[in-house]
Automatic annotation (TrEMBL):
Protein name, as recorded: Cytochrome P450 2J2-like
PROSITE patterns the UniProt entry points to: CYTOCHROME_P450
Major site of localization recorded for this protein: membrane
Cell location: Membrane
Protein's gene: LOC107714975
Keywords: Heme, Iron, Membrane, Metal-binding, Monooxygenase, Oxidoreductase, Signal
One BP term from GO: xenobiotic metabolic process
One Pfam entry name: p450
Cofactor: heme
Binding site for heme: 433
Leader peptide range in chain numbering: 1-30
Length: 486
């Protein structure tokens, strides 16, 4: 009897597996999606996900990849980006739904929100950044002040080995703090570092394996221990910091003289109370602040750390940058944004740093709000679209040596700066980075100030890895450096 049941169960299991396989084959072969590697049942192309370059090379700029049993479209190449995000801008503005994002931010904030909510928050953020002087002198002076704090702190290391991560991240985070909270923090402020730690845990989750597992099995994963639970706890620990800032702002603010993003947002909440449009709330304010920090700190600080790493790896480039700065600016005054045009080599190096560092490998995913085509291939409504910026920044047709650090990529034959339309590290279209101007200002002023004040050197016998970390924005692995005052 027992043997019969066993054989019966065995048979049933084989039958169900065969059924699943047939269904999988039918789904994959008849869905009309762009071509791509064949997905395994249940796991899809998880094994191919780290080799997306090869997939694009083999299947073209619009290909299909399966995350679990869900198809998603891999978009590569500048022409495809333009066709999708610029020519069909209104079709591709929304972000797809992911259980992990829903759990972390409930569809609020700036980065992962969609529709009317996103439009309102984005418009407001752009207007506020502009109001507080992005691209103007007031903000330039604030960044220059932070450049001095950064250089003074590095000076205290007295040319001895140190890891630049903490100083650089604090300096960059302080610029967002100035815009959002209206004040900066000292580099040894314990709460400042705690806030950064919680933010980091929260932001790393969506692209970690824990995040991927949560997206596949949300109910199961919400009951299991793991790094995702640490990240969920981080949001709860982060909230009191932000709530305290908001409370202080409410007490101290003068509506006729807003000091920062929070003041402006509180003003908007009051207006909205009158109009009954509930998109501006204190809860949403918190998520927007988290997004501004998340998108604005790690990206810029990682780029600057890559910059330092490349300068010690390619000392001849560092020397040329310093000699150009010495000639144009000298040693007695700080660099200014206006110096950019007179520093073509330095400016080209900055572009090459961004190109070669390629910190945002995948831009946050999009989806089409109706069936459409890109490059003649179907993109069905609602399917996740994964845009791969790396393919554009390493385009063989655009850069003579795409896999080498080579500032000549951005110089013409007369040594003048060469602008390239396809250089889009901030992406393009309606969802392109709203912090581009701010980031460019920060990168230029911090980089030139550091190059003016110090010569950066490797440690004796050090082997420098150019491998990036796997993260929302990829930075170099931790490294030690020496900064010798000039
Ligand atoms: C080197 C520095 C930076 C790089 C390379 C960078 C790059 C990007 C990229 C590629 C995107 C995705 C755009 C898309 O989905 O098409 C993005 C989005 C975003 N960035 Fe940046 N970014 C940088 C700095 C900043 C700064 C300083 C801020 C602060 C204001 C910021 C705020 C944002 C926000 C809020 C979004 C989401 C926009 C949306 O979904 O509408 N970023 N960034």
């Amino acid at each position: 009897m027992c043997v019969c049941v066993c054989i019966y169960m065995h048979g049933l299991l084989i039958f169900l597996c065969a059924l699943l396989l047939v269904k999988h084959l039918r789904d994959v072969l008849t869905n009309n999606m762009p071509p791509g590697p064949f997905p395994l049942p249940l796991v899809g192309n998880f094994i191919n996900i780290d080799h997306v370059d090869q997939i694009a090379e083999r299947y073209g700029d619009v290909s299909t990849l399966y995350l679990g049993n869900k198809p998603c479209i891999l978009l590569t190449g500048y022409e495809s980006f333009k066709e999708a995000f610029v020519e069909q801008a209104d079709i591709f503005t929304d972000r797809p739904y992911f259980p992990i994002v829903d759990k972390l931010s409930k569809g609020k904030g700036l980065i992962m929100s969609s529709g009317h909510m996103w439009r309102q928050q984005r418009r407001f953020a752009l207007a506020t950044l502009k109001y507080f002087g992005v691209g103007k002198k007031t903000l330039e002076n604030f960044i220059l002040q932070e450049c001095r704090f950064l250089c003074d702190s590095i000076q205290t290391e007295r040319g001895l080995p140190f890891d630049p991560q903490h100083f650089v991240t604090d300096a960059v985070a302080n610029i967002i703090c100035g815009l959002v909270f209206g004040h900066r923090f000292e580099y040894d402020d314990h709460n400042f570092h705690l806030m950064q730690k919680y933010l980091d845990e929260f932001l790393q989750l969506p692209i970690s394996n824990w995040g991927r597992l949560y997206n596949q099995f949300p109910t199961l994963m919400s009951m299991l221990p793991g790094k995702h639970q640490t990240a969920f706890a981080s949001i709860s620990k982060l909230k009191p910091f932000l709530q305290e800032e908001i409370r202080k702002h409410k007490e101290e603010r003068d509506p006729s003289n807003p000091r920062d993003y929070i003041d402006c947002y509180l003003e908007e909440i009051e207006k909205v109370l009158v109009s009954q449009d509930a998109l501006f709330t204190e809860d949403n304010l918190m998520y927007c602040v988290v997004d501004l920090f998340g998108a604005g700190t790690e990206t810029t600080s990682n780029t600057l750390r890559w910059a330092l790493l490349f300068m010690i790896k390619y000392p001849e480039v560092q020397e040329k940058v310093q000699s150009e700065i010495d000639q144009v600016i000298g040693q007695t005054r700080q660099p200014l944004m206006d110096d950019r045009t007179n520093l073509p080599y330095t400016y080209a190096v900055m572009h090459e740093i961004q190109r070669f560092a390629n910190i945002v490998t995948f831009t946050p995913p999009r989806m089409a709000n109706k069936d459409t085509t890109v490059g003649g291939r179907l993109i069905p409504k609602g399917v996740v679209v994964m845009p791969l910026l790396k393919s554009i920044l390493q385009d063989k047709n655009e850069y003579s040596t795409p896999y080498e650090f080579n500032p000549a990529h951005f110089l013409d034959e007369n040594g003048k700066f060469l602008k390239k339309d396809s250089f889009i590290p901030f992406s393009i279209g309606k969802r392109m980075c709203p912090g581009e101007q701010l980031a460019r200002m920060e990168l230029f002023l911090f980089f030139t100030s550091l190059m003016q004040c110090f010569t950066f050197l490797p440690l004796e016998g050090q082997t420098l890895s150019l491998k990036g970390t796997i993260s929302v924005s990829s930075g170099p692995e931790p490294f030690q450096i020496r900064a010798v005052p000039r």
